[in-house]
């Protein structure tokens, strides 16, 4: 099984955004040394506790200090941007780091309605035009335009020796079908979906259309995992994420709380119900338990690659989790 990482650059309480981004670099360097396949950084806008708003800048920073691992966006939120600009940006990254760049595309807003308005004006119109924007982006990068098209002679320079590999990220059958129609690879966000992901991946594979971009029907799933030496330690580490999500829902814009804060917090019955629901999309436990669950997911989804997202207060606990997981496969 291939293992990869999705990093949301969480900001811990008592830490700064710079601390979070430096921790992301350290995680990427560790992933490079441990043999992880990909390292993707997320795009979020004005969300409490998350520092990653411009993936392409982080990718250039990380790429300059790693040597092997594939780097990508998880994801560039296409409704906010013009396809040509995205093509230019990732062609430049592909020129700097040949054969290592993934271009993950998403359609989520990545933040509040107000942040979307400030970023791109009419986000909903961008969502409506997503199929056309995907086609335009892929035309710039791979298949070209007809001779009579207005962009026929426009090149998103520089052109890298190996083009970035396109991925569509999603949590629904609609996104899977869009990926299949366009011949891109597909990443299913199991960690934030309550849909039948195995059926969605199956739909993607059945409807995939071969294209000249190297995707070859690749599919992966992204899962939330916290691994520690013991189950008790893993549960304690996970408690920070649970409390952070509860606080975020209530409008608290603080960072990831400490385990002590999570232990001493006064939870309501409704809070416990929400935490139980969070657990359904997470794997929390010791190495043997995590290995068992990852293998079950890979078999159920019929994929050979799993991307892992891990949010902790303690950055060292996050590094430990990924070290332990890398030893499992």
TrEMBL record:
<dbReference type="InterPro" id="IPR036661">
    <property type="entry name" value="Luciferase-like_sf"/>
</dbReference>
<dbReference type="InterPro" id="IPR011251">
    <property type="entry name" value="Luciferase-like_dom"/>
</dbReference>
<dbReference type="GO" id="GO:0016705">
    <property type="term" value="F:oxidoreductase activity, acting on paired donors, with incorporation or reduction of molecular oxygen"/>
</dbReference>
<comment type="similarity">
    <text>To bacterial alkanal monooxygenase alpha and beta chains.</text>
</comment>
<dbReference type="InterPro" id="IPR019949">
    <property type="entry name" value="CmoO-like"/>
</dbReference>
<dbReference type="GO" id="GO:0005829">
    <property type="term" value="C:cytosol"/>
</dbReference>
<dbReference type="InterPro" id="IPR050766">
    <property type="entry name" value="Bact_Lucif_Oxidored"/>
</dbReference>
<protein>
    <submittedName>
        <fullName>LLM class flavin-dependent oxidoreductase</fullName>
    </submittedName>
</protein>
<feature type="domain" description="Luciferase-like">
    <location>
        <begin position="1"/>
        <end position="299"/>
    </location>
</feature>
<dbReference type="Pfam" id="PF00296">
    <property type="entry name" value="Bac_luciferase"/>
</dbReference>
């Amino acid at each position: 099984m291939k293992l990869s990482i999705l990093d949301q650059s969480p900001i811990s309480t008592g830490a700064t955004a710079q601390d979070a981004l430096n921790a992301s670099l350290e995680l990427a360097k560790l992933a490079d040394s441990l043999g992880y396949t990909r390292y993707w950084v997320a795009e979020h806008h004005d969300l409490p506790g998350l520092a990653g708003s411009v993936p392409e800048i982080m990718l250039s920073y990380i790429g300059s200090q790693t040597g092997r691992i594939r780097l990508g966006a998880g994801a560039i939120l296409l409704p906010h941007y013009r396809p040509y600009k995205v093509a230019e940006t990732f062609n430049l990254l592909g020129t700097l780091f040949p054969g290592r760049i993934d271009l993950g595309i998403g359609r989520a807003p990545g933040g509040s309605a107000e942040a979307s308005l400030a970023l791109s004006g009419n986000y909903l119109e961008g969502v409506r035009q997503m199929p056309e924007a995907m086609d335009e982006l892929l035309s710039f990068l791979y298949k070209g335009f007809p001779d009579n098209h207005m962009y026929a002679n426009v090149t998103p320079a520089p052109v890298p020796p190996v083009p970035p590999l396109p991925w569509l990220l999603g949590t629904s059958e609609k996104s899977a079908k869009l990926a299949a129609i366009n011949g891109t690879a597909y990443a299913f966000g199991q960690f934030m979906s309550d849909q039948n992901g195995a059926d969605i991946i199956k739909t993607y594979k059945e409807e995939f259309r071969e294209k000249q971009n190297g995707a070859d029907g690749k599919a992966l799933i992204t899962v939330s995992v916290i691994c520690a030496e013991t189950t008790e330690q893993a549960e304690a580490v996970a408690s920070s994420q649970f409390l952070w999500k509860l606080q975020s829902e209530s409008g608290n814009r603080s960072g990831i709380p400490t385990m002590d804060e999570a232990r001493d917090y006064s939870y309501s019955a409704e809070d416990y119900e929400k935490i139980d629901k969070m657990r359904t999309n997470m794997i929390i436990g010791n190495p043997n338990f995590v290995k068992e669950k990852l293998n079950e997911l890979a078999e159920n989804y019929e994929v050979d690659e799993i991307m892992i997202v891990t949010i902790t207060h303690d950055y060292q606990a996050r590094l430990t989790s990924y070290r332990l997981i890398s030893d499992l496969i």
